[in-house]
Amino acid sequence: MRGQDGTDAATRASTPVAFSVEQLAEVHRLQGLYPDRRAALLPVLHLAQETFGYVSLEVEAYVAALFDLTPAHVHEVVTFYTLFFRAPKGRHIVAVCHNLSCHLAGAPMIVAHLRRRLGIDVGETTDDGRVTLQSVECLCACEHAPMMQVDDRYEFGLTPEKVDRILEGLR
Amino acid sequence: MPNLTINGHAVEVPPGTNLIEAARKIGVEIPHYCYHPGLSIAGQCRLCMVDIEKTPRPTIACNTPAVDGMVVLTETDRVKETRKSIMEFHLINHPLDCPVCDQAGECWLQIYYMQHGLYDPRMRDEKVHKPKAVPLGPHVMLDAERCILCSRCVRFCDEVTRTGELGIFDRGDHSEIGLFPGTELANKYSGNVVDICPVGALTDRDFRFAVRVWYLERATSICPGCARGCNIEVHVNRRRPHHNEGRRVARLKPRFNADVNRWWICDAGRYGFAFVDDKTRLLAPSRREDGAVSDATWEEAIGAVAGALRRFAPDEIGVVASPKMANEDLWALRRVLEQRGIRRVAFRVPPREPGDEDTVLIRGDKNPNSRGAELLGLDGDGAAILAAARARVVKCLWVFGHDLLQCAWDAAETDAALRAVPLLIFTGTNANATSERAHWVLPAATWVEREGTYTNFEGRVQRFRAAVEPLGQALPEWDILGRVLQALGVEVSAPRAERWFRELAGAVPVFAGLTYQSIGDGGAKLP
């Protein structure tokens, strides 16, 4: 995932990184829920991602200041979890399971098809900003292999034809 | 106090002692990477596994406090097998580049592989590649491929300096230590992460590729960089003079002292030794007549100085001693002063900028022996001596080490004083603007070239030892002053640093009873 950091500069200039008053109140509420307020770092990072689109280095530094942490320690958390996006992501996230059951049931073929249809590699976003393609670990739906997650919903029993239909529905 | 048994030996330890420290007490070394007595417990490396009776599986010793009645075995077959497996894990992605690695020879991967590894590697896959030779800051270089993620450096920056620059980023075998992008590791103690890195991941940019560590020789010493007097080791390179561009002192390393600096030293002290081997060193006695400088013999120089001390009335002589001089030097100086009845003596010369200070180690007073000079009664008014020189009352000025033209005193007034005084004598290790004005220059040995003691700000007397010979004809100040005393007609027997210390301890009550032996390597606190 290294090398994504370079894309920040352009967006940094345009969008100021700051939570609204309401959001800051939510941050304080979350911090108060735990004996060690650092425990609220994950929900606050999710809030930041929803607000700013992705977790840039600037966002990491901003969140670090809210927790009296150094940016390095927030960077540790953000780089550990795959659900934090460190570069601008597409309007839709297509995440194909590549774990054992799906792999045996044809996931590599599904991924290859997606790459061809979208013209991007795994981890990339289409030029029009429509779709980000990911390949992920088990999503706990082995009985429906091969499967993928599109935004918040699961898509089961994938075939190239079914994938094409799903992609058509993404705007 | 818990009583426990380790490998059949009974040992009693204070409550809360972990099993690594308990075993250490009876001379049993439990191998470990992430544990460091000065840092929190991480339990990350898993190498310190031991068997504890009535415990179903091996347990990490670092995070297990000794308990009364505990029976610990550190060398069972199961423990040995576990260590071997863990070594294999640690080395899965290691580049095995020992021949070009600066850590080779003092690397705990090498040491523990030979002691506890010796397995046939089973890895057939391509190793994970990570950034190499990445400068983290002015002093530290990172090779992420060699890192075993013990997190000592991360904890050091979190817990000791509280600057938190380092982190472990990414996950699984892509994990690597690093800095938040765009920042650098530039805290005042950054060099310590190199010391505590058990492998070749963090190396010292100053020392990198300078000398192989097995050519180094060591001497115990004291850092002269401030009034703390951190305990250090001086590592010198005498066996391979063609390495390291002729620098004899290769590096300074902290030496543990629970009462002074624990395991650490600051970067200013660690990298502050370049003056020892640099081009400004004064190598031979010299005289300056009518603007022309020429070398002299020690006999001529000592004769000239002793002659001046005789020729001028005591009140016409001013001495600016230095808080960088050792107790032995200052005592020998006091003997000279007493011999001639010289009263105008001082040692404090205020720096232009006040020294930086913190609550970890660094003291604002950048001199190792201000307390010693105070206790030896040399604390006069330096500015008054210069004023007397300007007024042509003081006609012979003897300056030790200081550059009077680079201090908080008005440079024009100092310049007038140096111009007015008919005889300026300078004793010091390196040339400076003041030494260039001197009529006689007596070259002094640096602290690594001689023995002596400093008294730190807390009144702790600490010994430093010679690591190399003095450069050129330089002599320790106590030797120079002893020769002057001899030339003044006082018999000086056994010219050694220890002789002066013994005389000092016999004469100054606060030092009474101290000897080089009783000071030892840990120092001795004055009452």
What this model shows, in words?
- The complex is a heterodimer of chains A (171) and B (527).
- Chain A has 2 domains: 9-80, Arc Repressor Mutant, subunit A; 92-168, Glutaredoxin.
- In chain A, 45% of the residues lie in helices and 11% in strands.
- Chain A has 8 helices and 4 strands; from the N terminus they run αααααβααβββα.
- Chain A has helices at residues 8-14, 21-32, 41-52, 57-66, 71-80, 100-104, 107-118, 160-168, and strands at 92-97, 131-136, 148-150, 153-155.
- A 4-stranded mixed sheet of chain A has the order 2-1-3-4, covered by helices on one side.
- In chain A, a hairpin with a 2-residue loop joins strand 3 and strand 4 (153-155).
- In chain A, helix 2 (21-32) packs antiparallel against helix 3 (41-52) and helix 4 (57-66) packs across helix 5 (71-80).
- The radius of gyration of chain A is 18 Å and the shape is elongated.
- Chain A starts with 7 loop residues before the first helix and ends with a helix.
- By secondary structure, chain B is α+β, with helices and mostly antiparallel strands.
- Chain B has helices at residues 19-25, 77-90, 108-117, 152-159, 192-196, 267-270, 298-311, 327-340, 370-375, 382-390, 411-420, 477-487, 497-507, 516-519; strands at residues 3-6, 9-12, 49-52, 59-60, 71-73, 134-135, 140-142, 166-169, 176-179, 202-204, 216-222, 231-237, 249-254, 286-289, 292-295, 317-320, 344-346, 396-400, 423-428, 440-443, 452-455, 460-464, 524-525.
- Chain B has a 7-stranded mixed sheet with strand order 15-14-20-19-18-16-17, with helices on both faces. Chain B has a 5-stranded mixed sheet with strand order 2-1-5-3-4, sandwiched between helices. Chain B has a 3-stranded antiparallel sheet with strand order 6-7-10.
- In chain B, helix 2 runs antiparallel to helix 3, helix 7 (298-311) crosses helix 12 (477-487) and helix 8 crosses helix 13 (497-507).
- Chain B is elongated.
- Chain B starts with a strand and ends with a strand.
- The mean pLDDT of chain B is 96.
- Chains A and B meet through helix 4 and helix 5 of A and strand 8 of B.
